[in-house]
Amino acid sequence: xxxxxxxxxxxxxDILVGTDPIENNYIGIGWGNLGDLKLxxxxxxxxxxxxxxxxxxxxxxxxxxxxxxxxxxxxxxKKGDYIIYPCKxxxxxxxxxxxxxxxYHNDLDEDSYCNRRSVKWLTPNGIPRSEFSQSTLYELxxxxxxxxxxxxxxxxxxxHVQNGKTVKKISNAIEPINKLDKNIEDDVDDLTITxxxxxxxxxxxxxxxxxxxxxxxxxxxxxxxxxxxxxxxxYNTRVTKKSGDGGVDIIAHKDAxxxxxxxxxxxxxxxxxxSGEPEVSQLLGTLGDxxxxxxxxxxxxxxxAKNLEKxxxxxxxxDGNEVVDLIYKYYKDFEPQYxxxxxxxxxxxxDISSMQ
Length: 356
Hints:
The protein has helices at 20-23, 44-54, 60-76, 134-139, 151-161, 175-180, 190-216, 219-232, 277-284, 303-311, 320-330, 336-341, and strands spanning 8-11, 26-29, 82-87, 92-98, 103-104, 115-121, 127-128, 146-148, 236-239, 250-253, 263-269, 274-275, 291-297, 300-301, 315-318. By secondary structure, the protein is of the alpha/beta class. β3 (82-87) and β4 (92-98) form a beta hairpin. α2 packs across α3 (60-76) and α9 runs parallel beside α10. The two termini are 44 Å apart.
């Protein structure tokens, strides 16, 4: 492969989009209300003009910041370029190759990703974030929605795509970007910087906590940790024996003796990948009268597993993000040994959800 003509791009899409781009082989950006962007003159000034007409109250800095990712997506990304998509919904990173020019889909709602390019996903099952260095994860948390990937980060990502094999040096691979993109600066307005700083702090801490649980605990120790977390939530828990439990790692109940329903049967996985429908069904198969199932995985779940949860009232799936949220909520009740395992301190960051 001639890496000299290949460019590497990172793209952020909303958490609500989830894995739809993977399932339907595309990447997209917002700004659907601007219409078909190929009808505009291919300059950044033309984009700024239409953005200003659409957002008359927006600041100059905001208009300038928005124009950069749009221009790149429409005019600079080309067929054969690599795309890196950190999916916020399941904490997996997907790598693909662009297979089409920019297209505007007028059959979609304006609030959807009408501006799209087709992609062949090289890692359709995703790569866990824990497989990457912290510096790469930090770069993938860039301030803008479409951004160029530095050569050393691209090298690390490609090594995962090619199963750890050494790949050709690509230090000059992003030179074509600079020639086409030399007049574009990644201007970011203050609000965007503030939002991104909050998101980066949250995401970095999630990565840190999950990495500690995976690296510092054995499978059985992780079960004990989850049992303690459930205890902090007000339940009595018992960790089962290591074998012959039919997939049940923990039994939880509200009453002291464990006779009153519901009895919660819990299975724990400290993997960073996705758990599928067969594993979840195995846990469901252990249920008797008055029993419910809780599956906990530090990674994520396949679409089939999530669909099973929707159809089974006695099933609850908890992924890595939710585990971390529960740790935050009940951290003050942790025993000293678990506080030492996950050393955290409270800080205040802007509330992104309330910022417009």
